[in-house]
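Per reviewer request, we include the raw input and output of the structure prediction for the construct analysed in the revised manuscript.
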Amino acid sequence: MEHPSRRDFIKTAGLAIAGAAAFTESSHALPMRQIRRKRFSLGIASYTFRAFSLDETIEMTKRLGLTHLTLKDMHLPLLSTTEQIADVQKRIIDAGLTLASCGVVYMKTEEEVRRGFAYAKAVGIKMLVGVPDKSLLGLAEELVKEMDILLAIHNHGPNDDRYPSPESAYSLVEGMDPRMGLCIDVGHTQRLGIDPAREIEQFSDRVFDIHIKDVTSSDAAGTTIEMGRGVIDIPGIMRTLQDIGYERTIHIEFEKDQKDPLPGVAESVGYVRGVLDAVMNG
């Protein structure tokens, strides 16, 4: 059965316009809607385009009309040279994109923690989306203070024995430096049978980044699907973000159709923009 939120917002979502515009031969970006009172930015996790080069990722991001990017290491390896980093920075800046964060960076050893933070600093990114082992949180906090880089711990749902839920990370960092926080993955949160909007509201003082998507079911079997077709209450999430005064970026992470993700991403972008119009202007 179709999710109620999709029926409620389908008229304002502009899916057909977004999808059609994204697939014209023109490289021009989709026009950005002017959303009254919207405090946060809409971006994309480059993991969405993991089967494509950095240049292709930049081009597709621009075609979608998005300006913010969270950079995954297949588009700039963690052990890149200074020259490689400078080259990637220039290509991204020249394209008019903003690097909002990097990750997800997995850190199982002290060396990997230090490497992850050094990477973020070298690239000039002020937020590292990461998954450090719990025993390494003290070292991570030291580096957060030393480098003034936010650490946003990413939850990975029912198959993750470290940080399955936002609360599992929050409970460990709530007494630490205020730059230690969360990247809430709404899909993995829903797969635990937990309402992502409730988690965002409850832990709002430490929510630094959000990976937004939709999933097919509220259990471990749930997989990514075009936004509005699944079980997640996307309008509820947008209302919550507005209510808590969220001012950072929400990144679309589309894990479906690895070799041909653009149609699904375009549909999802159109749906989110329609929801934003309805929520912010309703």
